[in-house]
Structures
1.
Amino acid sequence: MKILFLGDASMAHYNLSLGLRKLGHETLVISEKLRWRKFPQDILLDRKPGKWGGLRYLIQVLLLLPKLRGYDIVQLVGPNFMALRKEKLRWIYDYLRRHNKRVLMTVLGDDYYWVHGCCDLHLFRYSDFNLGPVDRRLTFPYAKKQYEEWTLPINKDFSQYIASTCDAITPVLYEYWLCYQQYWKEKTTYMPLPVVPKKESSDRFRVRDKIRIFLGIQRNRSEYKGTDIMRKAAEDIAAKYPEKVELSIVENLPYTEYIKKMESQDVLIDQLYSYTPAMNGLLALSKGIVCVGGGEPEMYQLMNETERHPIVNVKPYYESVYEELENLVLHPQLIPDLKRQSYEFIQQHHHYIKVAQRYEALYNSLF
């Protein structure tokens, strides 16, 4: 099959394209330049700021149109798969539907159905938008902005148009899957994020004299994602046990540099308000690094995983993060088994070729 990926986030589409190529398919990935994060792609779309930057971007897209025809599958990264106004984006979307056989949407990131499920349907005990009955939009401007932006009539209508007219919807996290299940159950299929793991080595599971704890920060979303709380807990643990803990905090690093920093760590803390690890946490697991973050039972149930529960699940509070980190520091004998489970969990559920095989089966079912 010929498969076109439009847009990407955290290399989800790029990794999937690599798996599909291994299975003999022809793929092309076209995606945006995402600020400091330099993810790979086959064709780069780079929108510069300002009026002339927008015009240059539009010309680049229009010149690409002949290359966006004749595919068996076109897979979009959410409704905002290009940095265009909705009326232009809808024209591009309709063009893709006319000139290709099937169009799918990967659900990866905020969109109307996600914010609606969190804020209006109250589907989760906690999320980026709520802590139980407490509405985080009242205290966190970024959460309020995300909700207001995605529930604007033009964004809501566009999200509903794509969801209603595409051939399949593939959420990559439990939370996204649950939100889309409320409206598009028949065409929604959960697909794990694809990860390209390194080969196993016995050295990656060993315990060092000091436990190395790692935290990566995106400056503009720190409070929204709970990174500020996780950072405080980690810093307090490192201060209490300086002879047992080595804490590394990095901010806004390019992807390749970030991965190099991650390689030598024992524990990653990430995603305080999530039920599910996203790509950052999964990359850590693939390297035999223990992930402290979101790993709720609902996620394992969706994946039919009953044996390996490697993620150290924390509730969205400082005390929970502090207690789980302290437990690892005081009981380092737990870490080798968690490291091994982490690696095996990725091999079982997120290996890029296994995920590609699942997509291959889905693609075939659409014809």
2.
Amino acid sequence: MNKKESRLRRGRQARAKIAVLKATRLSVHRTNQHIYANIIGPDARVLASSSTLQADVREALGGKSGGNVAAAQVVGKRIAEKALEAGITEVAFDRSGFRYHGRVKALAEAAREAGLKF
């Protein structure tokens, strides 16, 4: 089993537990250049999304790279704002098997500071 397969297995286990709880989840995916966040309802519908590919996020970053902690903080703040507008205050954090440090941690902390409860 290689590194990617291990991450995907961890992600499946976490999603299975969240599905049993029937909770709305904040799903995070990261690549070397970008970070993506989605609020997904118990019925598997995307209720809100944010990523470093969006024009308003790129503008907030000043045209810099989307693959750093500052970009993750901006995305975390934006996803929390969108979730609160949609009436979602509490979510389960789905880190998709990624370790909780660096950009994933920065996104989560920014979302918490903006008013989202995990």
3.
Amino acid sequence: MLNKISFYVFFCFCILFLSKAKAQSLVTISIENRGNTSRTDEVVAIPWSSLTAIKSFIDTANFSVVNAATNEKIPFQFEHKGENKIHHLLIQVSIPKQSSIDLDIRKEKAPVQNTKTYGRFVPERKEDFAWENDKIAFRMYGKELENTPKEMAYGMDVWVKSTSRMVINERYKRGRYHENLGDGMDYYHVGLTLGAGNIAPYLNDSIYYSRNYVRWKILDNGPLRTSFQLEYDDWDVAGKKVKAIKTISLDAGSQLNKIEASYYYADSAALPLVVGIIKRKDAGTLLFEEKEGIMGYWEPEMGDYGITGIGCVFVSNPMQMKLTNQQLLTISPSVKNKPFIYYTGAAWNKAGVYTSADQWFSYLSQFKHKLKNPLQILLK
């Protein structure tokens, strides 16, 4: 008799526990991968307004995202885009091909989120702006660098990594980032080129480089997405005064940055733009896929430093891709008052993930495929 009573109490406890867990689910997010390739560690943005349309008040101080099947806590971030309000809920998921997962938003404390992206203004190093994720790191050059003409550079720089840790602060502090001390280094040369996928106006077969950025603003800073703006003073473009703002964002798990380049000028004429990758003296492997909008470069090996792969993926079809003595170039039209959007980034063979041109170019192709075939999201 006692055993029957104990079993009954235990059964009631389980029902109560399951009912409570179900009540904690404020919104369920179903994410479906309809494609034939797996999506690994992908950051998905869900409009916050869509969530609050289902649940009018969500306590962000008591908030967690949980895999409904496994009870695993899912990494997330509230994206503010430089404002006080929340624009998106960012979550990082892995979904096999032809599969789906259900995630519950629950009213409970979340564990401490691991920092997977980070960026900052670096006044102690001639006004660099440096940023990174768990795969790779980059920097853009500030106004102060123009005071040292021998070091002057226009383009985007790459800092290769062989660790998922955030390392840029350590590298600046020790001041030896041109040496590989076990986590990667800076051996990428930019010079007076577009470097690793920077952008500039292009008229009459000439690149009109701006000077370096003069103002910066961080919009979001991890743990899953770091985004910021760089503003450029006006400069002369074939007799036209042009100003620019570049919004750059980097997601955890991605080799590529999203670039939104906005150009401002007086007249209504179209302003062609060019995205470039510096070419090395020795032979490397080139990829020009005009129809798909993919430009890639697997550099020649730089001795003990290794090999860097650079790639650019375009949202809209470019006008032309071509090779010059100095750079790989993709020329595209722009629309006034609308940002030109593309993706650019890099990989290092010594990180052990992409160790050949074929692997790197395959990553770029898969990246474009994912852009054209986003994950499907249903809220309930």
